[in-house]
Amino acid sequence: MTEVSVTKDATPPAGDALVALSQVNKHFGSLHVLQDIDLTIARGEVVVVIGPSGSGKSTLCRTINRLETIDSGAISIDGKPLPQEGKELAKLRADVGMVFQSFNLFAHKTVLENVTLGQIKVRKVSKSQAEEKARTLLDRVGVGAQADKYPAQLSGGQQQRVAIARALAMDPKVMLFDEPTSALDPEMINEVLEVMQQLARDGMTMVVVTHEMGFARSAANRVVFMADGRIVEEAVPDQFFSNPRSDRAKDFLSKIL
Ligand code: ADP
Ligand code: MG
Fold first, then answer.
1. DSSP symbols for 140-209
2. 8 A C-beta contact, residue 97 and residue 167
3. Per-residue model confidence (pLDDT) at position 257
4. Rg of the chain over CA atoms, in angstroms?
5. Is 105 exposed, middle or buried (0-12, 13-18, 19+ CB in 10 A)?
6. Under 8 Å CB-to-CB from 123, ≥6 apart: which residues?
7. Where are the alpha helices (DSSP H) in the chain?
8. pLDDT averaged over the chain?
9. How far apart are CA 168 and CA 180, in angstroms?
10. Tens of pLDDT along 237-252?
11. Which residues belong to any copy of the ABC transporter domain (predicted)?
């Protein structure tokens, strides 16, 4: 077997780091859910995070926008450490857009309001400007005609595209996607992945937790494989899928491919 070059080849230059995690550790009680995580994400890079259920992928995402605190180590966005509270934290959450498996739209707000609210409250944009931007973004993700409806009136795929538009409305520096298509009916998965593909092509910095290996192959600059709270392996997609090094990754891939 040929030697696969890993980690270093796939790691971006530190100078261009937009997101940097250094020796991050996190426990839930006695469970060591993130163990010595070092991860640097360059501006414009698309990193796909894969791994078995319970390996810490969601927790990793949630620490990056400080939905979870960490026990030790450091996280910085664009060279600045994560703020602890208050207005700075709200700004951080706007800078780090997050899209969840369960859409998480505001049920009692219209689609348009879902996409204007954060702009008005956090970014201090006027209502008319926020609406203009919201309509542009909703058109871009293909749900412009749904602007005046409520989330429950939309399909899952449409709701998830609204959630993406809502995050984009804040002009985030980086977008985190935590299994954005896992709750969708199969016929709706592609419409969401296509929006994400386009975002990637447009140069958005993205961290994507997904089981969609087609997306990983075509959109990712790098695949990060996690198991038991650790980054076990990272490589460019071609290398990772054709020649995984670790037994954990081989085992995982044999089950899902
Ligand atoms: P993944 O997204 O890879 O499936 P998670 O990050 O959701 O993994 O969870 C990693 C581990 O941490 C799991 O064992 C999970 O049960 C546990 N865990 C996650 N969130 C909490 C929490 N809030 N309290 C206690 N344990 C948690
Ligand atoms: Mg998860």
1. HTT-GGGTTS-GGGS-HHHHHHHHHHHHHTT--SEEEEESTTTTS-HHHHHHHHHHHHHHHHTT-EEEEE
2. yes
3. 76
4. 18
5. buried
6. 94, 170, 171
7. 57-64, 86-95, 111-121, 127-140, 156-168, 186-201, 213-219, 237-242, 247-256
8. 93
9. 15
10. 999 999 999 999 999 9
11. 19-253
Q: Of 99, 100, 134, 107, nearest to 119 (Cα)?
A: 134
Q: Does the predicted interface ipTM exceed a cut of 0.90?
A: yes
At 99-132, the pLDDT tens digits run 999 989 999 999 999 999 999 999 999 999 999 9
217, two tokens: 């192959």
Helix (H, G, I), strand (E, B) or coil at 44: coil
The residue to mutate among 27, 31, 207, having the most atoms of ligand 1 within 8 angstroms of its beta carbon, is 31
Top-confidence residue, 215 or 86: 215
| Residue from 24, 27, 28, 177 to probe ligand 1 pocket by mutation (most atoms less than 8 Å from CB) | 28
Supply 131's token pair: 């609406």
Under DSSP, the state recorded for 211 is S
β-pairing verdict for 96-99 and 174-178:
parallel
Answer yes or no: is pLDDT of 57 > 50.
Answer: yes
Q: What distance in angstroms lies between residue 56's CA and the mean position of ligand 2's atoms?
A: 7
Whether residue 21 contacts residue 56, with contact meaning beta carbons closer than 8 Å, is answered with no
Quick: pLDDT tens for 147-164. 999 999 999 999 999 999
CB under 5 Å of ion ligand 2: residues: 57-58
User: What is the pLDDT, as a whole number, of residue 15?
Assistant: 53
